Amino acid sequence: MSKVKKVVLAYSGGLDTSAIIPWLKETYDDCEIIAFCADVGQGAEELIGLEEKALASGASECHIVDLKEEFVKDYIYPTMASGAVYEGTYLLGTSMARPIIAKAQVEVALKVGADAVCHGCTGKGNDQIRFESCFAALAPELRVIAPWREWDMVSREDLLDYLAERNIESAASATKIYSRDANAWHISHEGGELEDPNNEPSKGVWTLTVDPLDAPDEPEYVTIKVENARVTAVDGVELSPYAALMLLNEKAAKHGVGRIDITENRTVGMKSRGCYETPGGTVMVTALRGIDELVHDKPSRRWRDQVGQEFAHLVYDGRWFTPLCASLLAASESLASDANGEVVVRLYKGQAVAVKKKSPNSLYSEEFATFGDDNVYDQKHAEGFIRLYSLSSRIRTLNSKAKK
Hints:
This protein is an alpha/beta fold. It folds into 3 domains: 146 residues, HUPs (Rossmann fold, 3-Layer(aba) Sandwich); 179 residues, Argininosuccinate synthetase, chain A, domain 2, CATH 3.90.1260.10; 34 residues, no CATH class. The protein is 42% helix and 20% strand.
């Protein structure tokens, strides 16, 4: 192998990255390993003892960077403001976290003078594309090491054996069958019985939300304040983006809100099945959609939907640090300036429903829309509008009949 002097590894303390540290030292002639962990709200329990574990595995340093507020404010909120939802269902929890993690990893690498960065993504998934596309955009001079595309280990059991041979402790075991990824926005679940789309997820899959069947029999109402397509207050209390999300996670999870089970199209071409829990995020999206319904006219709403769909694919495919991202965000923000108001969302048995909504920019007019008597709309005007609206169809049919 060519010489690598110092490498910064995206480290989680899980099975893969625990094995990567000794593998790097053995494969790259005892290079120095700097462990890097991004705190994006995966939970304090995930970070306990992480530095000690990294050093015990052979890392010389461990940098744990707190990105929670930045993640929600600068990545989640702009994405949700765009209306981005991947393939109609997925709220992009894993996808949105990758650019901020990659950016922070590059910053650490440049700070410590590393000549390479390393990740534990498999050669089958989306994350390898997301990380490496960000590396290329931010620091193309750094070499990228992807062990799953280099080593000869092919299974969880291989990794466990590898660590056991080197007396490196790991909390992983052959019985922990699910692959999970958590952050402030969501937690994802793959593997186990989920690898067959014809299997219903067992209760052991879900970890964040109450089963909707077991959720409280009484609904809970939460009031969401929206400013420029961002949630700024919950139940009248002004909160930071991260604090608002944490509070809504707590409220929605106990009602079983935010569960989805999808078979999605990965960027590499294959389909994969995953279960996702996004309780607070589902409430936020419901509130934002409620405001959108009030403030955007039909062409603007259609354009926002187009921007959202394009942005969902951009985020999913790992193209955050690109001119296209900047362009789509600019379009989204121009529409977001009118997205202000207040929405009451009902949480009940797995559902989040906007039951009340108001906005100072609302285009809804009861005076015009009423079924009762009004003095502002002359229904006779509709006849001329419809005649012009359907004129091309009329001409086409008349021409067709004239040719017979």
